[in-house]
Structures are given as C-alpha cells and as structure tokens.
Amino acid sequence: MANYVIGGVSGAAWRLWHLTAYGPLMRTSVDGRELARRLAVHVRDNRDRKKWSQEEAAYLCGLGLRILQRVEGAQVMASLTTIARLAAGFGVDATQLLAATDKAPAQRNRGRPSKGRASRK
To answer: Which pLDDT value is given to residue 31?
Structure first.
C-alpha cells in the first residue's frame, strides 16, 4: 500500500481510527434493499390512506409516474430529492417514510391480464 499523509495523519493511522470510530455504525447500519422496502411500504400506505391513484400521487409529489411505480415496487433506492418530494407531497416527515416496519411491499401481478374471460379452472 502507498504511504500517504492526510492532514498530518499517515494513511495507516487514519484507517485504524476510521475503523475504530465508524466500525460499530457500519455493522449496525441498514442496507439499501431494506431502506427501499421500507420506503415502498410507507409510500403505498400513504397513497392508500389518501385514496390517490399512482397517477395522482406522482403528479402531487412532483414525480414521474414510472419513478413512483419503481419506488412502490422497491425496485430502486430513491434519491434524497425524490424522498423529499414524496414527503412534501404526502405531508409527512421524510424520516417517517424510512421508518422501520414489519409489512412487506405490495406484490405486483405479473403477466398479461386475461381478455375478459373468467379465470380458467
């Protein structure tokens, strides 16, 4: 490894300080998939509570429909700007959208719907 100095501290000393100072935080932090799941659940709950369609929610939050659909499906981790727009649109604090929850995100139906036929048995 290259020997370097940052602000009068050698690279090895800085790495040791960083691991001891931030190691516990890194071990207990929540991964991106969990945050995306939490956001999806809370966005869907808020939208259902207000009885908004996805189109209405996207418009009132200042987002594109596809972005809202991806957030609700936990397919992406939203940017801070998107989270702020969602919070403002729903009239809640951004931390409420990322709060822990036991609920699972809504599952989407896959495939094409049948063309007016009753389900086959």
So the answer is: 81
